[in-house]
Amino acid sequence: EMEETVRQLQLYYGWKQRPGMDGCVEQFVGGKHESFMMRKRQKPAKDSEEWNMIVEKEKFDMELYYFGLEIFSKQQRMYPYEKKDESFF
């Protein structure tokens, strides 16, 4: 969905790919740059004390995430995909 998000932003703001910058957006936004690499951590067991603490702490982030998904869906209809769209990816 990151590619679609960048495509929508590109259309909304009128962004164009700069010469010589091929792969720049994909590297940074696509999470391929070393600064975005996440360390692998063991997930806590579901319903453990640690799990429940995380659920409680992140509940508002999850509400915001699902609200964002609704907006994203609406924006896809506002900015339908066209073959002529230039893409950063």
Describe this structure in words.
- The protein has three helices and no strands.
- It is mainly α.
- The radius of gyration is 18 Å and the shape is flat.
- The two termini are 12 Å apart.
Outline of the structure:
By secondary structure, this protein is mainly α.
Descriptors:
89 residues; mainly alpha; flat
Topology diagram in text:
Layout: H1 2-13, H2 24-29, H3 49-78
Strand content: under 5%
How would a crystallographer describe the biggest sheet?
A: none
Q: Which structural class is indicated by helix and strand composition?
A: mainly alpha
Could you tell me the number of beta strands? 0
Shape descriptor reads flat
Whole-number mean pLDDT = 80
Q: Return Rg in Å.
A: 18 Å
**Helix content class:** 40-55%
N/C terminus separation: 12 Å
User: How are helices and strands ordered from N to C?
Assistant: HHH
Q: Note the total helix count.
A: 3
Model regions low in confidence, pLDDT < 50 over at least 5 residues = none
